[in-house]
């Protein structure tokens, strides 16, 4: 049995310790917001947080994830109200949407570590998240907007 | 009169004998010191030609993709046997472990992920930190030898610590266990370490600048 903590909930999973975390999240826990793109750490669609870092769950095995704090897109905020989700909604960022939970999870790490990211900071954080629909310009604009929302919220 | 005279002569002979013995002992001692220095095999024999020759073997390994790819001249790591710049705009960051959502260990596991073109891995995966970049790429043998020996540029390592790093560091060791589809450095790790030791034992000479 492998003990997994996902979105604050403890789960006991009967699975091979070499199983990719992504499989367990989607197929065993039924949290299908996290997507499978490449399975080779090349696209970022499967990005989740492990102890706050934006790991790629397709190459992270269960034995590495066991006992760690995992957060998926379903757990990014309580009411879909993370500043990034608000900005994403406002700017209609997604096209097909397939890459977007990975984009959001990566952007969340950027915004936590850098309250006012420049275009260069966005490039440095986000270049590993591929969008086949090419929504990059909207993603960039939305991250700037989210930073603004976050700063305004901090003032209140 | 004769008794005092003979006594003086005896005294003179004794003094002369003592002086001669003393000088002889000093001369012998000096030779002895010379000889023991030469025969002391704990003292390394300096040999600039042998030392440089050993370093050139070390250099070939350090400049192989398995070592050089994480010792780039720029801010991005390199990938593959052709040492192309890492895709995804990956950067060293301050601690050498990447930036924001692009931290090395987000993709690189504690071990190689199986399969061609899958991320290689090691618990210490990363580049040298920003304040101590230890660049290999583009360095001549002369430059690299001096850089490796300089504690201000080598992470504060003594020569003994350099040998230990090359011989025992697990991330250095990854170079010889690079996973599927990656070529090995041009000699075994033990042969490499032997050349590092030889380079240092023979005087740690840097190849000439030209
Ligand atoms: S599915 Fe994990 S990076 Fe593409
Ligand atoms: S929105 Fe379609 S892949 Fe990004």
TrEMBL record, chain A:
Residues 1-76 form the 2Fe-2S ferredoxin-type domain. Transmembrane segments: none annotated. Pfam families: Fer2 (PF00111), Fer2_2 (PF01799). Keywords: 2Fe-2S, Iron, Iron-sulfur, Metal-binding, Oxidoreductase. It comes from the Bacteria. InterPro entries: 2Fe-2S-bd (IPR002888), 2Fe-2S-bd_dom_sf (IPR036884), 2Fe-2S_ferredoxin-like_sf (IPR036010), 2Fe-2S_ferredoxin-type (IPR001041), 2Fe2S_fd_BS (IPR006058), Beta-grasp_dom_sf (IPR012675), Diverse_Oxidoreductases (IPR051452). GO terms for molecular function: 2 iron, 2 sulfur cluster binding; metal ion binding; oxidoreductase activity. This is 2Fe-2S iron-sulfur cluster binding domain-containing protein. It comes from Mucilaginibacter agri. The lineage of its organism: Bacteria, Pseudomonadati, Bacteroidota, Sphingobacteriia, Sphingobacteriales.
TrEMBL record, chain B:
It comes from the Bacteria. Keywords: Membrane, Transmembrane, Transmembrane helix. The chain crosses the membrane at residues 14-31. It comes from Mucilaginibacter agri. This is Cytochrome c domain-containing protein. The lineage of its organism: Bacteria, Pseudomonadati, Bacteroidota, Sphingobacteriia, Sphingobacteriales.
């Amino acid at each position: 049995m492998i003990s997994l903590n996902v979105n604050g909930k403890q789960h006991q999973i009967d699975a091979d310790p070499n199983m990719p975390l992504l499989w367990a999240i989607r197929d065993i826990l039924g949290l299908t917001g996290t997507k499978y793109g490449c399975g080779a750490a090349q696209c970022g669609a499967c990005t989740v947080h492990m102890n706050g870092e934006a790991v790629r769950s397709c190459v992270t095995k269960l034995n590495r994830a066991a006992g760690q704090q995992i957060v998926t897109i379903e757990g990014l905020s309580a009411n879909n109200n993370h500043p990034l989700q608000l900005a994403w909604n406002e700017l209609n960022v997604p096209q097909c949407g397939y890459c977007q939970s990975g984009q959001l999870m990566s952007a969340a790490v950027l915004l936590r570590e850098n309250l006012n990211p420049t275009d260069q900071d966005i490039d440095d954080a986000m270049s590993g998240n591929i969008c086949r629909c090419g929504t990059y310009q909207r993603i960039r604009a939305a991250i700037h907007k989210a930073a603004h929302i976050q700063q305004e919220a901090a003032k209140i | 009169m004769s008794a005092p005279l003979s006594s003086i002569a005896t005294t003179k002979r004794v003094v002369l004998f003592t002086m001669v013995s003393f000088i002889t002992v000093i001369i012998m001692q000096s030779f002895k010191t010379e000889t023991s220095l030469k025969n002391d095999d704990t003292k390394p024999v300096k040999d600039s030609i042998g030392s440089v020759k050993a370093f050139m073997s070390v250099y070939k390994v350090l400049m192989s993709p398995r070592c050089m790819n994480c010792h780039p001249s720029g801010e991005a790591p390199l990938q593959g046997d052709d040492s192309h710049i890492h895709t995804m705009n990956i950067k060293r960051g301050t601690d050498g472990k990447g930036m924001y959502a692009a931290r090395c260990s987000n993709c690189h596991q504690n071990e190689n992920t199986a399969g061609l073109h899958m991320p290689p891995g090691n618990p210490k995966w990363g580049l040298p930190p920003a304040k101590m970049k230890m660049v290999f790429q583009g360095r001549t043998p002369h430059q690299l030898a001096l850089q490796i020996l300089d504690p201000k540029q080598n992470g504060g390592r003594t020569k003994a610590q350099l040998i230990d790093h090359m011989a025992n560091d697990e991330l250095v060791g990854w170079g010889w266990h690079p996973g599927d589809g990656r070529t090995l450095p041009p000699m075994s790790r033990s042969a490499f370490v032997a050349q590092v030791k030889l380079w240092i034992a023979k005087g740690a000479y840097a190849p000439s600048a030209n």
